[in-house]
User: Fold this.
Amino acid sequence: MTYSISEVAEKTNLSAYVLRYYEKEGLLPRVKRSDGGVRRYTDADLDMLGLICCLKGTGMPLKDIRTFIQLQEQGPSTLRQRCAILEERRRSIVLSMEEMQKNCDKVEHKLKVYSALLREYEGNAV
Assistant:
């Protein structure tokens, strides 16, 4: 089954502009065209977009995502490199999560302090 750019935009919550940009930047190397030159996306393209969005969501720069996809296009001889890239990305995510947890703990502590102060203030205001 194939999909138009508007169908893919709706399915992925990405704009048609972003889809065209990703293709231009080499992130979607296999998008087919109809005889009339209209883009036709496949399920494999949708899977690739899922990967792109996932990696982008981790903060990976588009140039690094492009490198990853280029390696993927080269086949199994690049599996070790791709695993190394994903392992590094995972380490980065874990560090970010640890930092976010520390920030959340600080915010939670401040919330308790301010909530106690608010109760005290409201109790004295009566």
About this structure: The beta strands are 2-3, 32-33, 39-42. The chain has two domains: 1-61, 74-126. The chain has five helices and three strands.
